[in-house]
Amino acid sequence: MTSRTVADLIAAASPGGLGAFNVITIEHAEAIAAAAETAKRPVLLQLSQNTVHYHGNLAPIALACLRIAADSSADIAVHLDHATSFELIRTAVDLGIGSVMYDGSTLDYAENVAATADIVSWCHDRDVFVEAELGEVGGKDGAHAPGVRTDPDEAVEFVAATGVDALAVAVGSSHAMQTRTAELDNDLIARLAAKVPVPLVLHGSSGVPDAGLRAAVAHGMTKINIATRLNVLATEAIRAVLADSPTIADPRRYLRSARDAIQSEVEHLLRVLAG
What predicted TM-score, i.e. pTM, was given to this entire model? Predict the structure, then answer.
């Protein structure tokens, strides 16, 4: 396949949402690519800053993802997720990753604007797509605390001041949810979509049930990030294999089950996001 940008994938996914799935092991990337091929839907392979820390180095897992994307018959691109340092973003771009998220959401508004604008300027000089975050998606109950959801007027100002290409917004989801019980504020999503001139990104989508994902896309969400859901199902599959065959020592025997579980769920979610 020729190189695909995030803008290409967003266009290819329309009128549905673009599925963006986090990769931890090479089995994740293989499963997500296979699912995209089967479902005939575009996908993003995402590498988070936490995954980079786990591996100790971005290059090996990033280069594997880039090669998997290049060799696939599906429309696939690679994205750096939740980077908080310019150094990691520069490393990703030097490796050939064409889409990054700079997460300055823990900074105060003025600091977030200044840091994001600097990174956007540097990335745009290199034709790199930049996502940023405004509001607090957080984990556990952080997204449901008063005052942390994204204000539409402030979001418009933020996009104008920074020049970002996409904006992650806080609308009721939370990172790392293992149950699919999150209730999104669809009225807020619609108000954001009506005002903000760039694609909106939903983080913490693992905790959102199928109907909630469909509604989020229908109300204006464009990019849908999913990570924990895949890890839960992969771990369940591995536990089942090891419980049935406790003497297994060859990791291929149980990692295959994890890969199959991820592929099946990604296929399902891609169809959900297609509407």
Answer: 0.92
Q: Is 187 a catalytic residue?
A: no
Q: Which of 8, 71, 75, 81 is catalytic?
A: 81
Between CA 160 and CA 185 the distance in angstroms is 24
* CB contact at 8 A, 113 and 161: yes
What 3-state DSSP class applies to 102?
strand
Could you tell me which of 199, 81, 191, 207 has the C-alpha nearest to residue 144? Answer: 207
pLDDT band (50, 70, 90) for residue 208: confident
> Which of 148 and 189 is assigned the larger pLDDT?
189
- pLDDT at position 119 over 70: yes
Which among 94, 184, 114 has a CA at the least distance from the CA of 102? 114
CA distances from 245 to 32, 49, 157, 238, 261 (A): 27, 35, 57, 11, 18
Question: CA-CA distance, 160 to 198, in Å (whole number)?
Answer: 10
Q: How far apart are CA 114 and CA 127, in angstroms?
A: 20
Beta pairing partners, 77? 44
Nearest to 167 by CA among 191, 202, 136: 202
3-state secondary structure at position 82: strand
Rounded Cα distance, 88 and 94, in Å: 10
